[in-house]
Amino acid sequence: MELTNDSGGAVAVGPCASIPAEHMDFIRQVLDRVGDKWSLLVIAVLDTGPLRYTDLQRQVPGISQRMLTLTLRQLQQDGLISRTAYAEVPPRVEYALTSLGRGLHEIVSSLIGWAAEHHDEIRAHHARTAIAP
């Protein structure tokens, strides 16, 4: 099985070498999704257990209703979260991590922790390298 990169050449070494070329587009899509800032935060917040939409919106500062809805839909489509609708009045819907999502949670928590730990250092680099208008 020949492996290729975006330019059509064979990938001989590195983390992409073991990935069949026909899987690369889909893998990039998955990485885009799980690497999205909102997806990371939603996965992190859901670690405490199932949450309703409004609770998620409160716990993920800055997310709009539109982005939360889109993020939840995409994470559900990827099998990372579940959506359970209860036949009650008023209707109740809860979102929770699936086993696949729980497997990703540790990685997500590490990334968020790293960003928080290095916040000041990264901000200082931004300030030093900012281009004056």
CATH class: Mainly Alpha
Give the % helix. Answer: 40-55%
Secondary structure category: mainly alpha
**Distance N to C terminus:** 51 Å
Question: Mind explaining what this structure looks like?
Answer:
It holds the Pfam family HxlR. Residues 16-123 form the HTH hxlR-type domain. This is Putative HTH-type transcriptional regulator YtcD. Keywords: DNA-binding, Transcription, Transcription regulation. GO terms for molecular function: DNA binding. It is a single chain. The model has no long low-confidence stretch (mean pLDDT 86). This protein has helices at 24-34, 37-45, 53-59, 65-77, 99-117, 119-129; strands spanning 51-52, 81-86, 92-97. 53% of the residues lie in helices and 11% in strands. Strand 2 (81-86) and strand 3 form a beta hairpin. It has a 3-stranded antiparallel sheet with strand order 1-3-2. The chain is globular, with a radius of gyration of 19 Å. It has 6 helices and 3 strands. Helix 2 crosses helix 5 (99-117). By secondary structure, it is mostly helical. It starts with 23 loop residues before the first helix and ends with a helix. It has a single domain, classed as Orthogonal Bundle (Arc Repressor Mutant, subunit A), CATH 1.10.10.10.
